[in-house]
Amino acid sequence: MNLSKESIEEFIEIYRTEFGETPAYEEAEKMATNLLHLYRILISKESHSSN
Q: Most exposed among 9, 10, 13, 49, judged by the fewest C-beta atoms under 10 Å?
């Protein structure tokens, strides 16, 4: 899954605001991708359980 440069930069800014640290671009890309995967798993689990 490829995130846009703009999305990763936005993630970096949010992370910096919330945690007071600035992750490296590559690390932020991994973190954002993992977070997106987690959300997708949670959403799919919820949609399966509501049927």
A: 49
- Type of residue at 30: K
Tokens 């509501």 belong to residue: 50
Residue 51 CA to residue 44 CA, distance in Å, equals: 11
For residue 45, count other CB atoms closer than 10 A to its CB: 10
Q: What is the tens place of the pLDDT at every residue in 18-35?
A: 999 999 999 999 999 999
* Domain segments of the chain as ranges: 5-49
Alpha carbon distance 41, 13 (integer Å): 25
The answer for residues whose C-beta is within 8 angstroms of residue 47's C-beta and 6 or more apart is: none
Stated pTM of the model: 0.81
